[in-house]
C-alpha cells in the first residue's frame, strides 16, 4: 500500500484530508451538496460501503472505485464533479488519520545499541589475507 502513496501527511494537511474524506462520504449517502436525491436500490448499498471505506481511510483505492461506480450509475449524483473530487482524493492519499496509515504507514526501525557501531563487512582498505 505504501507504493501508492508517497507520504501520510499529518497535522493541518492530515486534518484537511480527513475533512475531505468526511465530506465526500457524506455526499455519497445524503442528499445535499452535489447530490440531488438519495440513491435507489442496490446503489444505496454500494454508496454506504464506499462511504464507510472512505471515512475510515481503509483500503481507500477500493472505496474510491466503489464511489466512482456509484457516481457514474446514479442519476442523482452529477458524475463529473464527484469523479474529479474522488480522483483528487485518490492522488492525495488517505492522510495520517486513517486506517491505511496505521496499517501501512512509515515505520521507524531502530537497531540495538550493540549493533550501531558494528560494521557488517570489512572496513575500507582492509583486505582479507590469503
What features would you describe in this structure?
The protein has 130 residues and is an all-alpha fold. It has one domain (11-116). The chain is built from six helices and no strands. It has helices at residues 11-29, 42-56, 60-73, 79-92, 99-104, 113-116. The longest helix has 19 residues, at 11-29. It is elongated, with a radius of gyration of 22 Å. The mean pLDDT is 77.
Descriptive key words:
130 residues, mainly alpha, 6 helices
Helix and strand arrangement:
Layout: H1 11-29, H2 42-56, H3 60-73, H4 79-92, H5 99-104, H6 113-116
- Number of structural domains: 1
Series of H and E elements? HHHHHH
Shape: elongated
Which percent range describes the beta-strand content?
Answer: under 5%
Distance between the termini: 48 Å
Question: Helices and strands: which structural class?
Answer: mainly alpha
Roughly what percent helix?
55-70%
* Major sheet size, sense and barrel closure: none
Number of β-strand runs: 0
Rg on CA atoms, Å: 22 Å
Unreliable segments of 5+ consecutive residues:
none
Total DSSP helices: 6
Q: Mean pLDDT, nearest integer?
A: 77
Amino acid at each position: 500500500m505504501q507504493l501508492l502513496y508517497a507520504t501520510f501527511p499529518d497535522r493541518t494537511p492530515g486534518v484537511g484530508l480527513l475533512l475531505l474524506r468526511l465530506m465526500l462520504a457524506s455526499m455519497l449517502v445524503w442528499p445535499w451538496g452535489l447530490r440531488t436525491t438519495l440513491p435507489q436500490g442496490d446503489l444505496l448499498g454500494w454508496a454506504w460501503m464506499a462511504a464507510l471505506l472512505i471515512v475510515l481511510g481503509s483500503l481507500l483505492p477500493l472505496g474510491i472505485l466503489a464511489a466512482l461506480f456509484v457516481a457514474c450509475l446514479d442519476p442523482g449524483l452529477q458524475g463529473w464533479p464527484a469523479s474529479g473530487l474522488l480522483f483528487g482524493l485518490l492522488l492525495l492519499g488517505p492522510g495520517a488519520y486513517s486506517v491505511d496509515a496505521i496499517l501501512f504507514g512509515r515505520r521507524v526501525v531502530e537497531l540495538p545499541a550493540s549493533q550501531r557501531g558494528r560494521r557488517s563487512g570489512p572496513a575500507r582498505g582492509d583486505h582479507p589475507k590469503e
